[in-house]
Design goal:
The structure is a single chain. By secondary structure, the chain is of the alpha/beta class. It has eleven helices and twelve strands. It has a domain of 226 residues: NAD(P)-binding Rossmann-like Domain (Rossmann fold, 3-Layer(aba) Sandwich), CATH 3.40.50. The chain has a seven-stranded parallel beta sheet, with helices on both faces. It has a three-stranded mixed beta sheet with strand order 7-9-11. Strands 8-12 form a two-stranded parallel ribbon. α1 packs across α7, α4 runs parallel beside α5 and α6 crosses α10. The longest helix has 20 residues. The structure holds nicotinamide-adenine-dinucleotide (NAD).
């Protein structure tokens, strides 16, 4: 049997690199080769791929998903695309949204076009979207059929790319599968996001900035469980379908902060309440019945254990995050 040649965009980032390390690691499918296409923005980190760099099944192409000619050339040699590349930080999209629209919308459309028009035939396209496309929900959980009501420029750019991806299925018959996951956590997470920011601040004895009263609720998904869900959809999902992927642990930011204070042996003295994020969604909650029933998805990582492991990883890998924090002035 020949290997499936998978093109992973954004594979030098947090989730994409974990996906690549897993695919090429001992628990991977074994019958794949992986090419990462990544622009190496501030969030892309070559060190995230150190574990696989010498693997003969791995290759890396530096470049922008908006570069039509490059994308067509790279896509030509692949059988599947798994698309993570994006501008991903909500706060940055509030400061300036242009890059979000360019990369997340135009970049996705460039890839879809290359997937559709590939010499030798179209290739399946797994689009990694987010639960933020649904907006905010006070009670209950969103099934995949709920309308999209994104609030931040980031979420709106992801909703746009999500819909453009599905349009390539409905219009052209391209095999497009969309996943909408909740908030990921784990190692190698860029230290501007809440969990790694709080852990690294606490490790340094600094205060952590909690938005407003910390009442915003998020569902937390460990990266191992996210990869499990993505692989189920890549290998067994149906073309044209959307699959929610959640972790099953809903916490307010205040509850999350409490757990991180405990892990670091700190108190609420270390917390600074800061002005709330503009347009801050109150609660996200995805209904994962579809992926559970159709593909047998089961999140396995206990949140308390996963958070402790994540805390320990940052404690033990200062050399990974310290330069990133200094460079980004976090
Ligand atoms: P990240 O910011 O850590 O990584 C993004 C990667 O994309 C980086 O390696 C960056 O260099 C690359 N990139 C950015 N612009 C590019 C371009 N124009 N061309 C090529 N590469 C480019 O993001 P992440 O947290 O790993 O998220 C991955 C995907 O998952 C994103 O699509 C994001 O919207 C989605 N997602 C993330 C979360 C989460 O909790 N982190 C939750 C839901 C959905």
């Amino acid at each position: 049997m020949t290997d499936t040649r998978i093109l992973v965009t954004g594979g030098a980032g947090f989730i994409g690199s974990h996906y690549v390390r897993t695919l090429l690691g001992p628990d991977g499918p074994g019958d794949v080769t992986v090419t990462v296409l990544d622009k190496l923005t501030y969030a892309g980190n070559p060190a995230n791929l150190d574990d696989v760099r010498s693997n003969p099944r791995f290759s890396f192409v530096p470049g922008d998903i908006c570069d039509r000619e490059l994308v067509a050339r790279v896509v030509a040699g692949h059988d599947q695309i798994v698309h993570f590349a994006a501008e991903s930080h909500v706060d940055r999209s509030i400061q300036g949204a242009a890059e979000f629209i360019t990369t997340n919308v135009l970049g996705t459309q460039t890839l879809l076009d290359a997937a559709l028009r590939r010499p030798g035939g179209p290739v399946p396209f797994l689009h990694v979207s987010t639960d933020e496309v649904y907006g905010s929900i006070d009670e209950g959980s969103w099934p995949e059929t709920d309308p999209l009501r994104p609030n931040s420029p980031y979420a709106a750019s992801k909703a746009s790319s999500d819909l453009v991806a599905l349009s390539y299925h409905r219009t052209h018959g391209l095999d497009v599968r969309v996943t909408r996951c909740s908030n990921n956590y784990g190692h190698h997470h860029f230290p501007e996001k809440v969990i790694p920011l709080f852990i690294t601040n606490l490790l340094d004895g600094h205060k952590v900035p909690l938005y407003g009263e910390g009442l915003n609720v998020r569902d937390w998904l460990h990266i191992d469980d996210h990869v499990q869900g993505l692989e189920l959809v890549r290998t067994g999902g149906r073309p044209g379908e959307v699959y929610n992927i959640g972790g099953g642990t809903e916490l307010s930011n205040k509850e999350l902060t409490e757990l991180l204070l405990e892990l670091s042996g700190s108190t609420w003295q270390s917390v600074e309440h800061v002005a709330d994020r503009l347009g801050h969604d109150l609660r996200y909650s995805v209904d994962c019945t579809k992926i559970r029933e159709e593909l047998g998805y089961r999140p396995r990582k206990d949140f308390t254990q996963g958070l402790r492991e994540t805390f320990d990883w940052y404690r033990d890998n200062r050399a990974w995050w310290e330069p990133l924090k200094n460079r980004a002035a976090l």
